[in-house]
Write a structure and sequence with these properties.
Blueprint: H1 8-26, H2 32-43, H3 50-59, H4 66-78, E1 82-85, E2 90-93, E3 104-108, E4 114-117, H5 125-132, E5 142-146
Parallel strand pairs: 3-5
Antiparallel strand pairs: 1-2, 3-4
């Protein structure tokens, strides 16, 4: 997901289909509420908090309480269909759920759009510094806040 325009309907369709296929293969249940939460995350190109999701579920006619949204989000994150953006205490759909990766996030402070990128941390300054210190990076949370091209 980038800050560039794209076929948004195809993006949503592809994301839901991938989750459906992966859940079938793994014997997991993509329940209607889990699927709807994923659709909501795919619809926005910004991170959504649990209460944002609850509000949208209520607008759709779902009788939802916070544990419902949190359980659906936990499932989606656990199985790689979504990520938590720590800086915002919110969630975003994964743009490459078919790969095992450690994403980084570019967060626009104006429009709140979030782009997922895939830097190779081990090859950058952080990786070199860690290596010099004798440290092996197993997981990193990288979130950069700034201004996207659309707002600039």
């Amino acid at each position: 997901m980038s800050f560039q325009s794209h076929n948004h309907r195809q993006c949503i369709k592809r994301g839901v289909q991938h989750a459906t296929d992966q859940c079938e293969k793994a014997g997991l249940q993509l329940t209607p509420i889990r699927q709807r939460v994923l659709e909501l995350l795919l619809t926005e190109h910004r991170a959504l908090g649990a209460y944002d999701i609850l509000e949208k579920l209520s607008e759709d006619g779902w009788k939802s309480q916070p544990p419902v949204a949190y359980r659906a989000l936990d499932f989606l994150v656990q199985h790689g269909f979504a990520h938590k953006v720590e800086r915002l205490n919110a969630f975003i759909a994964c743009t490459t759920p078919e790969t095992n990766h450690n994403p980084a996030f570019l967060i626009c402070r104006i429009c709140e759009a979030v782009a997922e990128i895939h830097p190779q941390l081990s090859r950058g300054a952080l990786g070199r510094t860690a290596k010099d210190a004798g440290f092996v990076i197993e997981q990193a949370v990288v979130e950069a806040e700034g201004v996207c091209p659309n707002c600039r």
